[in-house]
Amino acid sequence: MSRQAERNVRKPTPAPASAKSARPRRPRVPWRLRIAAWRDQHFHGLFSSLGRLAARPWATALTVLVLGFALALPLLFFLVYDNARELSGGLREAREVTVFLKPALDANSADALAGELRQRADVAAVLVRTPEQGLAEFRQLSGFAEALDALQGNPLPSVLVVTPRAVADMDNPALIGELKADARVDLVQYDAAWRRRLSDILHFGERVVAVIAALLALATLLVIGNTVRMDVQARSEEISVMQLIGASDGFVRRPFLYSGLWYGLLGSVLALAIVAAVEIALAEPVGRLLDSYAHRFSLHGIGVFAASSVVAFSALLGWLGAFFATARHLAAGQPQ
């Protein structure tokens, strides 16, 4: 054999290009199948967690009762505050100055004084109420129509309702001082200090409701977190097996997150039912109280938007409580 033939025999033959491309590749899953698998996993976690809650009805009922009462208290405080705010809204926002004229002044003198006040730069409007209008309003609102019929004449004076031009003029000392010094004026009624005090009371009530709601929301978060933590402890061996076979943290955490979600939803529904029961129980005495005021005020319950917000916020609290309860377990890789 010649040297050239020897070199040809010893030289390794290169692998064909088809052999390099024959390596196994991971099959690409279409995005539609990925979305379908993600959806199926979440639906399975959602309903399997509900089944686990139904499997232990007494423990679930006690937890939901605690959550329902904890969420109902801030709702009741909010309803009381909201109705009080609307009830006093007209008094708190009213800027009018009520001027009672001397009883001896006739309608022409009242119109003349009203014209003078309308020419002032710090006065937006002046409304003249005659004694006849005042007596008719008093007859309608007081309920003493028969006693008023026994009067020989009309003892009420003419009244001017003066509206300052801007909110900053509510405490205008010049306008109030000139009205009090006018010889045609008998009394000036302007309760600015009382309205400011009412505003301060309402602001304080708003802050109290916010603090109570925050504290009870934190209590709800802790109750759900502790309940889910005990569930994690009870299933620690199952979680360890799932982690050994390669289950991701999201797969392990998902049923516990949905358990917290169900706790929040059920607790909020119970809280709304408690609020509705309280409204029904108080409907009759509140109706009698409003009848005594000739239905000048109307109370309202919790609306659809507020109820939906409570349900969504409670579900979020349950989700967060379950997330915090499972985070440390998954990070440590062992039961709490």
TrEMBL record:
Protein transport listed as a keyword: no
Membrane-spanning intervals of the chain: 58-81, 208-228, 261-282, 302-325
Span of domain ABC3 transporter permease C-terminal: 211-319
Major localization class: membrane
Listed InterPro entries: ABC3_permease_C (IPR003838), FtsX (IPR004513), FtsX_ECD (IPR040690), FtsX_proteobact-type (IPR047590)
Domain (FtsX extracellular) ranges: 96-172
Subcellular location: Cell inner membrane
Membrane topology type: Multi-pass membrane protein
Region (Disordered): 1-26
Pfam families: FtsX, FtsX_ECD
Taxonomic superkingdom: Bacteria
Key word Ribonucleoprotein present: no
Keywords tagged on the record: Cell cycle, Cell division, Cell inner membrane, Cell membrane, Membrane, Transmembrane, Transmembrane helix
Subunit structure and binding partners: Forms a membrane-associated complex with FtsE.
Job description of the protein: Part of the ABC transporter FtsEX involved in cellular division.
Family: Belongs to the ABC-4 integral membrane protein family. FtsX subfamily.
Name listed for the protein in its UniProt record: Cell division protein FtsX
